[in-house]
Amino acid sequence: MSVSAPTGAVGDTLAQLHAIVLRADAATLRIRQVSGAATELLGVDDTTLGEPGFLATRLPAEDRARVLAELKAATGRDFEHGFVDASGGARRYRSRSQAYQQGAGRCAEILVLMVELPQTAVPCGPTELASTALEDAGVLFVSTDDAGRIQVFSGACEAITGSSPATVRGNPIWELFSHGAERTMLRDAFESGRLEAIPNKFVAHWSDAANDSRVVVWNSRVIRASTGGTRLVFTGADITERVHTEAVLRETGGRYELLLHQFPGAVWTVDRSLRITSSDGAALAGLGLRPGDLVGVSLYAYLQATDPDDPNIEPTLRALHGETVTYDGQWRGRVFQVVMKPLREPSGEIVGALGFALDVTDRVSAERERDRLLHAERAARAEAERLIALRDEFLSIASHELSTPMTSLRLAVESLASGEASGLLAERILALAVRQTQRMSKLIDELLDVSRMRAGRLTLQLEETDLASAARDVALRLGQLAERAGCTLTVRAEGSVVGLWDRSRLEQIISNLITNAIKHARGAPIVVDVASRGEEAVLEVADRGPGIPDEHVSRIFERFERAAAARHHGGLGLGLFIVRQLAEAHGGRVTVESSPDRGTTFRVTLPCRGDASKDGADPR
User: Fold this and answer.
1) Does position 487 have pLDDT exceeding 90, yes or no?
2) DSSP-based three-state secondary structure for 97
3) Residue 572, number of CB atoms within 10 A of its CB
4) Do 616 and 458 form a contact (C-beta atoms < 8 A)?
5) Which long-range contacts (CB under 8 A, 24 or more apart) does 608-611 make?
């Protein structure tokens, strides 16, 4: 450490007096500035002077503890002691230590004036010497008489006010202060003679040369001379810049705090042990919290987590290792977009983590609803396109299915009308015409049934009906059709199975199921089982055909659907749809079991009494 020394006339005067002026740290007594005579008297350079503990090395052992205590106490009173000069010779000094700079309520530095005591005392008062030393150190220094008239006005004071010592000397000191309350306090103290009413330390305001207000912290001390005179000594430091800086910091801190309070999310910090050190933000209210409520709480405890791999803990641990992590977290039914960053000291050391969170629950919900609607719209569009394709296919099939019997019927009628057919040939032609007429009638009836079902106008004529009898009658009518397809058709029933049903619609169910089996299981046996199970009747139509592929099972009961291509099997694809609608109209249900190469079983379950659909039911 290098220390500086005063120069010029002041330095010369101190040298002539064999005086030493030191400015030192109040706690350690480490020298920070010395007068010019010090280097000669002490015999060392300024670097050595600044070494810790140097001053103590020049004090005699018998005086050392006392002198060091006096220096640190900075009482402003005189004390004598020995001193060792550069040649090792013993000298005697009268010294005084007083506070030079105040900070944070304690004495930060001291000024030490050491005047050698020669054989004949030097006629120099301590106040003048102190004034000279403080002048050289740039301290604001003013001394007055007991009436408050200025006697000493330092150069530092002149630099602030723009007034020379000669101009202000003899003027009342209170005229230098710009605030009325400060003037009144000083004037009243001097005029009443109660100088002890002046605070030992106070903050006041001076006007500078530009008439701007300066803030000065003053120390005052009453000095009573042995001759009976009284002086008041003021030493001060201009703290205007410090006050301004503190005001800016307070304002900035207030704005920062306001910003945090109004931040729409949440902001928090944690230390390296994951203990929350601050929490703020408007989003805390939504969690039932106020700013600062979480300070001191463990992040593990608040998030009810025990595992470092917890999705709400792991990002914070990564931030403590230097990563910036962005993720979506969930807490208390809300969704938050979170950013975790390492919290660093100016040195770069990571001391914690800083978190920002925005509540994006509404946005996420809106996005999910948008995706749901988009998916539903796409599904609806796909379904509409599928139905349009089915409609077009149905129209093509319907036109073909209706045109085929119409063509056969027309040719038969033309042949009979021409008179060319007679006898056995005529009978065959008439039988063909009847079959084609029946086929057309069935197709038209199916279309009408579907139309009634869609419009809710299907009517059931309920009556006591034997399901077993109905199954036998239908099997008898379809026997020749089954025989032509190479199928054996068997009905198995143990007695009568009677219920309240529409017999014609019941026969339509049985006919559609047997016809469907004949189409898809050519050459395979078909078995119709009728049984009673408690309050329900069960009809099963089983074949040993190729079965229904799994991907078609769920939709074979829909309109216009078929498990095989239309070119392989005739019909409009309405038979199974009608079966399901009629079963449900009776309060029943229809299911199917099928596996490739093992055949298919359709099972219709009907309540025997009272569960038919109310719409269109007409019990007799």
Assistant:
1) yes
2) strand
3) 21
4) yes
5) 608/498, 608/499, 608/500, 608/532, 608/535, 608/536, 608/537, 609/499, 609/500, 609/535, 610/500, 611/586, 611/587
Rounded to an integer, the average pLDDT of 58-72 is 87
Q: What is the pLDDT of residues 199-255, one digit of tens each?
A: 989 999 988 888 888 899 999 888 876 556 778 889 888 888 888 777 766 666 556
Whole-structure pTM value = 0.37
Closest CA to 520 of 592, 584, 451: 592
DSSP string, 468-526: HHHHHHHHHHTHHHHHHTT--EEEEESS--EEEE-HHHHHHHHHHHHHHHHHHSTTS-E
Between strands 266-271 and 276-280, the pairing is antiparallel
| Residue 593 to residue 548: CA distance in whole angstroms | 9
| Helix axis angle, 575-585 to 423-455, nearest 10° | 50
Q: In 273-409, where do the E strands start and end?
A: 276-280, 325-331, 334-344, 350-359
Q: At what angle do helices 423-455 and 361-417 cross, to 10 degrees?
A: 160
Q: Identity (one letter) of the amino acid at 97?
A: S
Q: What is the pLDDT of residues 281-301, one digit of tens each?
A: 877 777 788 888 888 889 888
What is the token pair recorded at 171?
């003027």
Strands 498-501, 463-466: parallel, antiparallel or unpaired by DSSP? antiparallel
Q: What is the mean pLDDT of residues 381-402?
A: 72
* Start-to-end Cα distance in the chain: 121
* Residue bearing tokens 């007594």: 29
Reading the block at residue 42, the tokens are 């002490």
124-164 pLDDT per residue, tens: 455 555 555 555 556 788 989 889 999 888 888 988 888 88
Render pLDDT for 169-197 as a digit per residue (tens, 0 to 9): 999 999 999 888 999 999 999 999 888 88
The one-letter amino acid code at 15 reads A
Q: Are 123 and 212 in contact (CB under 8 A)?
A: no
Q: Which amino acid is at 368?
A: R
The single-letter code of the amino acid at 563 is A
DSSP 214-255: EEEEEEEEEEE-TTS-EEEEEEEEE-HHHHHHHHHHHHHHHH
Long-range contacts of the stretch 322-331 (C-beta < 8 A, 24+): 322/350, 328/360, 328/364, 329/357, 331/287, 331/303
Q: What is the pLDDT at residue 535?
A: 92
Q: Which residues pair with 266 in a beta bridge?
A: 357
